[in-house]
């Protein structure tokens, strides 16, 4: 849908979109986009305002509003993908300590609640 190629129907589970970057006879790069589902051959998709084989420079101008500008931000690693040296271990340990503290306090409050509730059920023999 971002490339304005979506036809409005949900694709089957095994469908895929193929994007090819090739050179023409004049050694100029062009892009072709294909759709493949259960058919035998990939079907070429028509790129709006360009056709089935679109020069790379024209693709840049057509889709410049959706292309990333800040590649460092787009390609940065998430915390789960980082090595121990790259990740902020101090922040992770701080969050872990807070979670454990909250769980211990919650356990203590629940324990006190049940002890007081059980004392109310006892009958005093001194009466």
UniProtKB/TrEMBL annotation:
One of its GO terms (molecular function) is phosphatase activity. Keywords: Membrane, Transmembrane, Transmembrane helix. SUPFAM superfamilies: Phosphoglycerate mutase-like (SSF53254). The chain crosses the membrane at residues 89-114. This is Lysosomal/prostatic acid phosphatase. It comes from Glossina morsitans morsitans.
